[in-house]
Structure formats: C-alpha cells, structure tokens
C-alpha cells in the first residue's frame, strides 16, 4: 500500500506540473499530440517548462533531485533553458526551517547552540537534497576562534527515500522479468548499489570519514583542497568542518577575471579524476558544479576545493587494472585488445568472436578521436557502446555505475571550463605511467615490502624446513653403488640451490629493512 500511495503521488505531481505535456509534445503523431492537449485542460501551465520540471523534482524528493543534478551537467543533451534551471538544484534546493536545524544540533550535542559555537548564522549558506550548511565560529582548545561550516541532515529523509527505493526495486523486478535485456542489465543489483550509497549519505559521520580519507590521499598532489573534519563535533545528523573560501566553478567568467588559468584548471580536473580512480581506487562520486569550488587565496591560488563527500566510489585492484587496460587500449586505438579484455573478463559470452566485437567497438569510438571536447559527447559514446553491448550480450557491472556517473560529471565540468580540451591526449600519459608503475620494478619493490612481515615470520623456520626437505630414507643395501652416488649428487645439488635461495632471501629482507629506514628518514 505504501508503494501504491507513493506511485500515485508521483503520477499526481507529473500531471500537476505538466510533465506529461513536456514529454508527449516531442512526439509528432497526431493522436499523441491530441492526448497531450487533453491532459493539459484545466491546469495552469503558464510557468516555463524548465521551472515546472525543477519544481516537480523538488516536490518528488531527494532521489529525483539527484537525478536533476546529474542532468544539469549535460548541456549538450538538454535544451539550454532546462539545463540552466536544473543547475539550481545543485545548491539552491529550498532550505528547511533554521529552528529545525538548531534543534537537530542541540539534540546531537546535548547543549544549547550558543554554548557550542561562539557565533552561529541561522540563515543557511547552501541547501541541498540531503542536508543544508550553516556558517559558524568555534573556539579551539587553545582559545583561538576558527571559522567552520556546520552541515545538518534534512529531517524526515529516511522514510521518503525508502519509499522511492521500494518503488525502484519493484520496477527493477518488472524490468528483469519482462524485458529481454532485463537479466543482462542487472537492474536489481544496480538499485541495490544506489540504495547503499543513498543510505551512506544519511550518515554524516560516514561522510566525514570519506572526506578524511580523500584528504589523506590528495596530500602532496597540490591540486585540490579538502576541508578538515573536526571530530569532536561530528555526529550522524551533524558534522562540523573547516570553512572553505572559494568561487563556485560554474562562475567561469569570475574565475577568468581573477586570473585563473582555465585550460589548466580543466586539465587538472582530468588528472584529479584519474588519480582518484586508478591510483587510489577511492573517488569523489558526486562532482556536480555545486560541490566544486576554486580557491583564489594567494597561497592556494587556482586549486580545486571539493565539498560534500556523501557519495564516494571504490574500485578493487582487479577493477582498476581492467579499466586502466581498457582506457589505455582505447587511447592507442587498439580495439582488438579491448575486445579481448571483455572476453577475458567474462563480460561477454566466451564464444564471442573477437573480430566482430573489435569491429563494433571501432565503429563506435573511431569517429570521436582527435576532436576537442566541444565536438564529442561521452554520453553519446556511452549510449552507442550500450547499444553495442546489447548486441553482444555484455553484462552490466553494477560497481561501475558510479564511475560512469562521475565520468559524465567530469565531462560536463570540462565542457563548461574548456570546450577545446582534448580529453584523450590529457588522460593518455597519466594512464600509461600508471600502467608502467603497476608492472615495473617500483611495484615489485612495494609488494616485497608489504610481504616483508610475512617473510620475517617464515625466516626462523627456514632451517627446520631445509632439514625436513633434505631428509631422505637411507638406500637399501641391495641398491647399486651407482644409484647411491647419483642420489648423493642430487642431494648436494638441492642443498646448494636451497642455500643460495636462503642466502638471497635473507639479503632481500635486509635490503628491505634498510630501504624502509631510508624512507622514514
């Protein structure tokens, strides 16, 4: 009954804001256009279509708001008026009452808000689908005042999200059972993945820990600033963090006037994305313009500022290696290797012909090489790849859904910053270096260092293992002398080989220990 009620509400909102007319009007068949006119009778549809779409998504709740946020970055696929209006969903979702925010803070810390902060701005500075942010000042243990940002969870989120997810699970079941492509698309697993990340967003302590991990990963890169979390004031409903000062990345003209090198900023964004994905396997997966700023402070001029870490993506070593090999093969136009990788990974049936898959992938990707970003669309490439995957029965990998979403976000940002950006040539050197690091001597040394504690435990057992290996039954008196001599020679040879291995093993451990001390000092 709950799902039926929510479904009825969605239909009501669609009709109330005239979204049916928005969809049906694009069809040319007379009976469809007539249906659109009939449904619009008696409704006030004087507001622009983009405004009605944004307001409807806001009324439908956080899942639909997030959908609008993703759409807002695809200005190449949407009419300009709709893209501009949906961009307001990134940080201008209507806020909830400040009294509710204050009550949530006081409940979380069990103190009046004036006892927690030296000052607290009751007017929120930003409001999104999941939470809103207030600026405040906090007195540190040393007595100094510190500017902070206080993020407060929007009340009543969990019931609404659970209703929407329940509907999505039901629809995923229908797709899986009724559609010929249903099982291949794995809709239930995709919804389960979405469920996981949405519920993670509802625990702000998890978001704080995500930010801390990204901050550690990005140290030394000098491309991005991530706010420090103040752990004494982090609870599931409220987190307090360092206040960041920057200009929203969507304000390109203001950044250009301030002297920011916009093409370099676009290239740095590509480097950041590939570093987080392939080096760390831990990436910011909600990189719409509302969550990205640029610092104009002299000491950090031109660096990115990342905000909102409720959704992060993770990749296993196998996922990273597979993706890196695919990207590298794409950049080298080695379509045969791409086809082989799909077969080796089990993403396509084992009996798939390599030459046919290679030809299909070439037809999708070849027209887009050597073009600036303004002349290509990753969204279109992904759509054509999807059509190809349908033909070859490629299984969709749910763990890569967030990566695909983030890649589209990156393309949207890059298109706003520098339409002349050559995405392929910017990313290719990074990936080739990463692949070399994965298979070169540096990687081997790192693996030996990681295994050094295990080897150290085995070292004291080496004499006993050698003794047991060399211990052999005595030959019978009826055996020939030649057999005895041959056995002795074999034993001596084994002993020499094992002694050399043992000596090499000990020397390797000593070298690793020396190298570790050198790294510390």
Automatic annotation (TrEMBL):
Protein name per the record: Probable protein kinase UbiB
UniProt KW keywords: ATP-binding, Cell inner membrane, Cell membrane, Kinase, Membrane, Nucleotide-binding, Transferase, Transmembrane, Transmembrane helix, Ubiquinone, Ubiquinone biosynthesis
Pfam families: ABC1
Residue intervals of the Protein kinase domain: 119-499
SUPFAM superfamilies: Protein kinase-like (PK-like)
Name of the gene: ubiB
Top-level taxon of origin: Bacteria
Binding-site positions, ATP: 125-133, 151
Pathway note: Cofactor biosynthesis; ubiquinone biosynthesis [regulation]
CDD domains tied to this protein: UbiB
Lineage: Bacteria, Pseudomonadati, Pseudomonadota, Betaproteobacteria, Burkholderiales
NCBIfam families attached to this UniProt entry: PRK04750.1 (NF003404), UbiB (TIGR01982)
InterPro entries given in the database record: ABC1_dom (IPR004147), Kinase-like_dom_sf (IPR011009), Prot_kinase_dom (IPR000719), UbiB (IPR010232), UbiB_bact (IPR045308), UbiB_kinase (IPR050154)
PROSITE patterns per the UniProt record, alphabetical: PROTEIN_KINASE_DOM
Main location (coarse class): membrane
Catalytic residues of the enzyme: 286
Membrane topology: Single-pass membrane protein
Cellular component per GO, a single term: plasma membrane
Similarity comment text for this entry: Belongs to the ABC1 family. UbiB subfamily. Belongs to the protein kinase superfamily. ADCK protein kinase family.
Species the sequence originates in: Limnohabitans parvus II-B4
Enzyme class per UniProt: transferase
Enzyme Commission identifier(s): 2.7.-.-
Residues annotated as transmembrane: 497-515
Places the protein is found: Cell membrane
Biological processes, Gene Ontology terms: regulation of ubiquinone biosynthetic process; ubiquinone biosynthetic process
């Amino acid at each position: 009954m709950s799902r039926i009620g929510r479904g009825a509400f969605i239909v009501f909102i669609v009709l109330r804001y005239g979204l049916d007319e928005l969809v049906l009007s694009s069809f040319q068949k007379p009976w469809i256009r007539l249906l659109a006119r009939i449904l619009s009778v008696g409704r006030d549809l004087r507001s622009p279509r983009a405004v009605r779409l944004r307001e409807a998504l806001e009324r439908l709740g956080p899942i639909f708001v997030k959908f609008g946020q993703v759409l807002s970055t695809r200005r190449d696929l949407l009419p300009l008026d709709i893209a501009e209006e949906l961009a307001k969903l990134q940080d201008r979702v209507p806020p909830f009452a400040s009294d509710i925010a204050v009550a949530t803070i006081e409940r979380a810390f069990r103190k009046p808000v004036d006892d927690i902060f030296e000052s607290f701005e009751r007017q929120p500075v930003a409001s999104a689908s999941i939470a809103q942010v207030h600026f405040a000042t906090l007195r540190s243990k040393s007595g100094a005042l510190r500017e902070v940002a206080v993020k407060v969870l929007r009340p009543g989120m969990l019931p609404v999200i659970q209703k929407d997810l329940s509907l999505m699970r039901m629809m995923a079941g229908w797709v899986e059972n009724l559609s010929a492509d249903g099982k291949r698309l794995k809709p239930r697993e995709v919804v389960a993945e979405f469920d996981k990340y949405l519920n993670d967003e509802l625990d702000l302590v998890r978001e704080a820990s995500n930010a801390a991990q990204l901050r550690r990963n990005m140290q030394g890169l000098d491309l991005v600033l991530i706010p420090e979390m103040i752990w004494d004031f982090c609870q599931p409903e409220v987190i307090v963090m360092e206040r960041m000062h920057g200009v929203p990345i969507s304000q390109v003209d203001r950044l250009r006037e301030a002297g920011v090198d916009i093409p370099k900023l676009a290239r740095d964004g590509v480097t950041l994305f590939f570093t987080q994905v392939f080096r760390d396997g831990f990436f910011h997966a909600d990189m719409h313009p509302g969550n990205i700023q640029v610092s104009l402070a002299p000491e950090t001029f031109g660096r990115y500022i990342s905000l909102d870490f409720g959704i992060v993506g993770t990749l296993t070593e196998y996922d990273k290696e597979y993706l890196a090999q695919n990207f590298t093969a794409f950049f080298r136009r080695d379509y045969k290797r791409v086809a082989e990788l799909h077969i080796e990974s089990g993403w396509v049936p084992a009996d798939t012909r390599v030459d046919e898959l290679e030809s299909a992938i070439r037809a999708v990707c070849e027209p887009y090489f050597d073009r600036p970003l303004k002349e290509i669309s990753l969204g279109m490439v992904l759509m054509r790849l999807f059509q190809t995957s349908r033909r070859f029965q490629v299984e969709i990998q749910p763990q890569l859904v967030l990566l695909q979403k983030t890649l589209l976000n990156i393309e949207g940002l890059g298109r706003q910053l520098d339409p002349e950006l050559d995405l392929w040539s910017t990313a290719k050197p990074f990936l080739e270096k990463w692949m070399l690091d994965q298979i070169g001597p540096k990687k081997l040394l790192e693996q030996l260092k990681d295994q050094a504690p295990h080897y150290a435990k085995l070292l004291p057992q080496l004499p006993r293992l050698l003794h047991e290996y060399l211990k052999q039954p005595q030959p019978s008196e009826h055996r020939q002398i030649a057999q005895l001599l041959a056995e002795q020679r074999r034993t001596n040879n084994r002993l020499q080989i094992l002694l050399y291995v043992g000596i090499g093993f000990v020397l390797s451990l000593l070298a690793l220990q020396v190298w570790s001390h050198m790294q510390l000092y």
